[in-house]
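User: Reviewer 2 asked us to show a designed sequence for the structure in our supplementary figure. I'm pasting the structure tokens here. Could you produce the per-position amino acids so we can include them in the response letter?
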């Protein structure tokens, strides 16, 4: 049995028309993703594109269907 989410309900409850992605300022970079069905989201930061393991893993906070975390600098 396939269980499909009610896409209209998701749009009504979690619609978001703000900025997403990496939002840079001199004080911080805020990473924001829209994923209303997720139970958890993390941001993995690497020291280089060739690194195999993350330098740090940051828990993202959820507001509605949007997850975000801010990194200083």
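Assistant: Here is a per-position design you can include in the supplement:
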């Amino acid at each position: 049995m396939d269980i499909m989410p009610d896409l209209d309900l998701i749009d009504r409850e979690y619609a978001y028309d703000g900025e997403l992605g990496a939002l840079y300022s001199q004080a911080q970079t805020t990473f924001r993703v829209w994923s209303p069905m997720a139970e958890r989201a993390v941001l993995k930061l690497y020291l280089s594109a060739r690194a195999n393991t993350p330098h740090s893993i940051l828990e993202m906070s959820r507001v509605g269907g949007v997850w975000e975390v801010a990194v200083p600098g």
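For the response letter, you might also mention the following. The chain has one domain: 7-72. The first strand starts at residue 21 and ends at 24.
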